[in-house]
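Lab channel / #folding
Pinned by the channel admin:
"Please post every new chain as: sequence first, then the C-alpha cells as a reply. Keep commentary short and put observations after the output so the thread stays searchable."

First post following the new format, from NK:
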Amino acid sequence: MMMTAAPAARDLTLINGKIHTLDARNSIVSSVTIRNGKFAAVGREARSDEGRCMRTIDLRGRTAVPGLVDNHNHFLLLGLRPGHDTRL
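Reply from TO:
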C-alpha cells in the first residue's frame, strides 16, 4: 500500500541529493529527514517511511542548502530612486 503525504505536511525527507548540513565539519550527505524545520536524521538514518504526514522528495542528484529562504533581491527598486540609474 502506497501512502501519500498530507497536503500541509511539515515533515520532509530529502533523498538522493547533495545536501549541505552546514555543521561544524561542512558535511555533505545524500539524505536527511526534517521535522518541525530541523534536521532530525542525517545520512543513512534518514527515513521516508514515517507515515502519512512525511513528504519525500527525490533530489535526483541536485544540491540542497538549508537556510536559503526567500532569497530574492530588490535591486531594481534601488534604480527607481532619484539620482540612481540601474541598467539591465
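NK: Strands lie at 11-15, 18-20, 28-29, 32-35, 38-42, 54-58, 63-64.
TO: also worth noting, The chain has a mean pLDDT of 77.
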